[in-house]
Amino acid sequence: MSEILNEEEKFRSFVLGLKEKNPSYTQARLATELESYEIGPKLCRSSLRWKINSILKRGTIKDKPRSGAPRTVRNQTLTRTVNKLLFLKKTKVKEKLLIN
Fold this sequence. Notes:
Strand content: under 5%
Distance between the termini: 74 Å
Largest sheet: none
Structural class: mainly alpha
């Protein structure tokens, strides 16, 4: 069974292959080469260099592993709980101010 590479993985593979063929190339030189080939994402030069740097640091075409958990969880239950806790905290602060 052959793996099907998406566009991002193809771009990473091309960058790694280009670096392997030309080990002396810097990020700037790789960016120039990629711009001349007109392949990959259409990014400004600094973004392209940043992307090349991260690809070279990772050294693989695969994505970074993720934890699987969403970055944020936002639902009504959580929103109500947070609001209730904030309200309780505000009332405690007010009570402390009244006591002092």
